[in-house]
Every structure is written in structure tokens, then in C-alpha cells.
Amino acid sequence: MSRPLEGITVLDMSRVLAGPWAGQLLADLGARVIKIEHPERGDDTRGWGPPWLAEDDEVERVAAYYLCANRGKQSLAIDIASEGGQAMIRRLAKGADIVLENFKVGGLAKYRLDYASLKVENPGLIGCSITGFGQDGPYAHRAGYDFMIQAMGGLMSIGGEPDGMPMKTGVAITDVMTGLYATIGVLAALHERSRTGQGRYVDVALLDVQVAALANQALNALVSGNSPERHGNAHPNIVPYQAFACSDGHLVLTVGNDSQFARLAELMGHPEWARDPDYATNAARVGNRDVLVPLIQAIFRTRGRDQWLADLEARGIPAGPINTVAEVFDDPQVKHRGMQCTLKRDGLEVPQVSSPLRFDGETALSDLAPPRLGQDSDAILAEMGLSGEEIERLRREGIVR
């Protein structure tokens, strides 16, 4: 199957998660993605283990963290602090469509590798800078990390139990969302370029993304004038919409409308709840959650989780188990959709989580495993016209790996 971005070349000069996540998504969509890495240490996440893909001395040891965001890329290990390395990056950018980077504000300008410099030679180039706080403002000079941004951007204030410590999410979700927003931005710029022939500069900040992703909680605050409180596993605007304990485990119940609540009330032996003005509407249930939720909880404790889930499913009441990550990949629906897959590299089987995007029934997934550091340096440099002797000289000088 042909993929939507075939023929597009991306220079991925980003590290860690947000930028690489965008680069991996573009690779899954068919773009050629050349990952620019430091010749000695590579992407920081190569060392963020354990766990490791391989412990064998004959094979480069690489952290599982790195493997989550670098599928589908070629690795060019090159020292951009050297004049020779800078010259080669400029040559690559001249023929590229998109450049992704997450250097500090102004960090690439001293090498003349910033977007303004690169666009002089390639007016159609699309640049995307991912930073903690954006290209301007009082915090623009600061480094930004997901955990810190979850705190500053309000997400932690609404996570955790009401009487406990504010909590971050278990995944660097701001980085992931920033990668998605970055991808949307460059795809929009790519579409516009088809009409104008001109590239665009996309400025994406982790803090901006986190604030935007507060969604209903942001509007709860802006409309009411009050900051939302922590509700643990409950929902601020919907009841019952939370986790409940059963006799042998927990489930999540997500009643999204009044008809679903009526079916729940009947299942729990209290059909009168659906007619009670204190519970009949969602607004009433939210106002009376302190009374209603304990009643529901007491009934859930009388039977096992799987019994309840079967009965809820039979009545069309949305609910699900709280799975461990291992249980997720053993789930029949997850298996059916092929969300766990394996790519091969150097005889190793590299586990991957598949792309959730499908086009005409086919998953948009690159067949290239995350690369070894500098795996493609020779091939890319030769493609640029460098001879074997020139490449070896650059290697001896420490400019490439």
C-alpha cells in the first residue's frame, strides 16, 4: 500500500520524546525521516534504561524508552558543533521538506542551522521547533520537561485523590500530545505549500499544549471562576463516571447519559432511582454525588468484577476492567487490532506498539525498526556524493560515526 507522505523527507533533529514522536508518526505515514544524532551519545533516551533491548556485548544495548519513538527512521550520527557537520546538515536541509528540532531558543542560530538560515537556500522548507515555553515570552529561555509542564500547566492540580498529593500521569502525556500537535502543524504547512510553494515555521510549546489540553477543565474554571478540585477517579461533570470496588477487584463505570443511568438503576435493583428528581438527570446526580455514589459502591461490592462487567455489557452500560499494561496486550480487542507488533533489526526482534492510524483498512506503520546509532551514516553520506575516503576521514575526525 502506498502511504500518504511518500516522497517527503524529514530531518529529525529532535531528542527525547515530543519531537521524536512527531518524527515517528511522519515516518509511519510514509515520509523518509533522517534522525540526526550526536556521534558519541546519540539521543538521550538510548541510555534511559533499564529495561534494555539487548545485553549482548556484540550488539548495541539500547533502552526500551528509545524504541517507543524512533521507528521508521534512518540514523545519521554527525557532530553539528563542527563546521563540517554543519555544512552537511545545510546540504541535507536544502533537499528536505520538513525540519524538526527541539533545541533551546536560539540554540541553532549560532551554527546557522536555525529555520531562518536554512530557508534562505530552501524557501519551501517547513520548520518545526518544539520547546518548553515557545519562542518568545518571559520563560522562553527555560528548558522544559514533561513532568514540570504537567505541574505548571495545571494537569497535576486535577489529578490524584482529593486529600492526597497532586499527581502526574503515568505517561509523559504532554510530550506525546505536543508531538501530535507538531505533526498537525507541519501537515497543515505541507498542504499550504502545495498552493503557495512557500514553507512555514511552526512554533510548538509544551506549556501551550498542556494548557490547551485542559479541555473541559479549563472551561470549567473560565466559566465558573473557580479552579477545579481533584476528584481522584471520579469525573467533575458526570456521575456515575468513576472507578468502583467489587468483591474481587475494580472496574470503571462511565455512565454518559440518563438512559444509561436508568438501565444501571434497574440492574442494581433500584429502578426508582431513574425517577427520583435527585438522580434522574446528570446535573442532579452531580449535585447529589455524595449520597448516590456510596449507594452504588455498596452494591458493586456484593459481587465479582467479571460478573458485573458481563451484566453491564449485556445492558449496554459502558464499563471496563482496570487492566495492567501486560493485560492490555492480552486483551482480545487489542490483539484483534494488531496493536502489538514486532520489527526486526540485526537479527533481533524489536517489540513495537503499532500505529492507531488505518487507511483503507491498512495500518500506517513503518517496517523499519528503530535504528542503531549511526546505522545509516555511510549510506546517507554516500548518497550526498561523499566518497568512501571522505567518509572515513570524517569518522577519524569524530565528525561522523
UniProtKB/TrEMBL annotation:
Alphabetized InterPro entries for the sequence: CoA-transferase_III_domain, CoA-Trfase_fam_III, CoA-Trfase_III_dom3_sf, CoA-Trfase_III_dom_1_sf
Entry's Gene Ontology molecular function annotations: CoA-transferase activity
Pfam family, one: CoA_transf_3
The keyword Oxidoreductase belongs to this UniProt entry's keyword annotation: no
Keyword Transferase part of the UniProt annotation: yes
Keywords recorded for this protein, A-Z: Transferase
Coiled coil: none
Protein name: CoA transferase
Source species of the chain: Billgrantia kenyensis
